[in-house]
Amino acid sequence: MREYIITLMARDRVGILSDVAAAAASLGGNITNASQTVMSDYFTLIFSVDAPDDLSGERLKRAVAEAGAPGEFDVTVRDYVPREKREHPDSERFVMTAQGKDKAGIIADLSRALRDFNVNIEDFYSYIHMGNLLILAEITVPFGVDFGKLQKEIKNRGGEFGFTVHLRHENIFNATGEINF
Amino acid sequence: MASKNDILKTIEMLQSEHLDVRAVNMGIDLFDCCDRNIDTLCRNVREKIVTKASGLVDVCDGLAAKYGIPVVNKRVAVSPIANIGAGHGIDGFLALAHTLDAAAEEAGIDIIGGYSALVQKGMTVADENLIRSLPEALSQTKRMCASVNAASTKAGINADALILLGEILKETAAKTADEDGFGCCKLSVFANIPEDNPFMAGAYKGIGEAETVINIGVSGPGVVKRAIERLVAGNKACDLGNVAEEIKRTAFRVTRCGELIGREVASIIDAKFGIVDLSLAPTPEVGDSVGEIFTAMGIAKPGAPGTTAALAMLNDAVKKGGSFASSSVGGLSGAFIPVAEDSALAHAARLGYLTLPKLEAMTSVCSVGLDMIALPGDISAATLTAIAMDELAIGMINRKTTSVRLIPVPGKKPGDEAEFGGLFGRSPIMEVIHDGADDFVNLGGRIPAPITALNN
Lengths: 181, 456
Hints:
By secondary structure, chain A is α+β, with helices and mostly antiparallel strands. Chain A is 29% helix and 41% strand.
């Protein structure tokens, strides 16, 4: 058994996931993990497939691409290589929010500040609503990082763009959003 | 991890609705400080409070940064000082009062509670000494709050203690006359006082509680008010059931935030987590008012007919949401209606909508009683006692906590304004019936405990 990671991008329509899953299944592939999103009418999908040993990545890619109309799907396939050691073994999850009038460079600046503190972004979401940009990012902050310093830096960077930025530990969202915590 | 929608809803509550944790209260047991020598006793008390409480402010500030939730008040409550100082005279109690005040200042705590006596059935010598020391103690200290439990459903009402307290209120007001009788703002007289209340002036560390305990007061009324406003504005078909449901949901969230912070504070400072108190505690700031919740619910002038029903629904919905959120609910857990501390209530009193009789009626469906009521300076001690007896009777009969925080304001009469400053706010002097109860009050003794089976 081998494992592939596949990404697909296309203009959104009804039935993309159904077509792609059928193509993988026809070759004996089994979808294990998948995440899809639609943004501005464009569809993206990332998924992993457990495949028979004799199924090459090229053949799988062709089959998935041919599941759509000619030229409809942009597909990439990679062999899955497990990481030997997790990059952030001891860390805590926080949610970063930033709100302000959209300005080029804000995402670049905030993400650079996070990188400088060795903070990984695990989930990132932003959209423009009536000229204001809202950023929502789930991040992992390694133990040992000076949280006060990180918070100050992030707020300052955002402040330079006229953005209000907050970092909050994920526990607060678990506590207020779930019945059990 | 919570969904994006849940995250956005919580962020809205944190940022737009000003959710905060209203009070983190550290209860500290002082029984191991007792000593025959007053200097040794005071030294022990100071050392224990400073050692235990010095880190509290930093821990709370650290967690406020981690979760993005302000922790507004960091306070301490100690074992009832009448018990700790037993065996010492009035001077000894005064020395303890100064010690509490100085220890709070040294630990960076703004208010310390527990200068308290539990006298619902009778007064010990120590209880009486503490009560007699109150005018001096309250006028000479800044950070110390006092409370007396003078009634309970099990014991009845100790009228003798209330007669003494009527005199004490007059003396305390006289000693702080240049501050509109401010000393009385720091004294609450209770029926059925809870042992785990985190709110001042009535917080003390109950005898049945752990060595060191953290009790939490959840966010103020602003969050509930904004939630109701948003609901009503966006929903023409909204009825009272929808409003109650929204209050429940909001109470659930604020209770969860409070418990999260409380448990983490307790874990960091190696204390027991006690309770979350669901009370909606207003401040004089606009937008942080129980009176404004009434307005959001459609009662244009708090105190108008309908206010008691609105308060009953509000109080009940908060309890329902909070009880579902936490198994550690305690303290007072009801809406407060402290007139001076709530700018909308004070304004309604100024306009004549909110009167003393209406307030008394409202306290039958909420906590915590006739709270922060400014009264004419020429009110007699007997009338103060009679007002307190009425209010404590509501608590005694209804098996709930009630209290009075009455401030006779020297030299002022109805229509004048009293100014207490800061969180204590300002209030018009309320109209009061001065005579007619003296003979009843002066009978003294104790109103017997009520029967609890025939409860209509």
